[in-house]
Design a protein that fits this description.
The protein is an all-alpha fold. The protein has six helices and no strands. It has helices spanning about 5-30, 35-45, 55-85, 90-100, 110-120, 125-130.
């Protein structure tokens, strides 16, 4: 299982970096939502008069919230992956929490989440991150 721990850290780093890129793209869409819809309607010869004004208010807010959630979870995932690579218990716990969110991302995220949870929940890994504490032997005088 010791070979799987660095692999879990690296895979999570790469996946979360891709998710940060996606979150930034969503943030850009949220910021330029009205302009984007105007471009699409112009190229497809639709009239924006048919779109309710509330769409231009609510949609960027919803997209922005989703983007923020993706960015926060991804940053936490990167921090957890770095902690796992440095063999820190807090990194293992943080990456486990983030991996449960991965389960919601059908296909790649689900596979990575299941693999990460399997590796980080195994007894061998738990012992690896929490070695037994050795008490110093005290000399007794007779």
């Amino acid at each position: 299982m010791e070979k799987h721990i660095p692999l879990v850290g690296i895979l999570n780093l790469v996946y979360r970096a891709l998710m940060i890129f996606g979150g930034l793209v969503l943030a850009a869409i949220a910021i330029g939502f009205r302009y984007l819809i105007e471009m699409i309607s112009y190229t497809h010869h639709h009239h924006l008069d048919e779109v309710p004004e509330i769409v231009f208010v609510i949609a960027p807010i919803v997209i922005g919230i989703i983007s923020a959630l993706i960015l926060v979870v991804s940053i936490l995932g990167i921090i957890g992956a770095i902690g796992v690579l440095k063999k820190k218990e807090w990194g293992r716990i943080l990456l486990l929490i983030v991996s449960f969110f991965n389960l919601l991302h059908i296909q790649l995220g689900t596979l990575l989440g299941v693999y990460t949870i399997w590796v980080l929940f195994s007894d061998e890994t738990i012992k690896f991150f929490n070695p037994p504490i050795v008490q110093p032997v005290q000399k007794t005088s007779n």
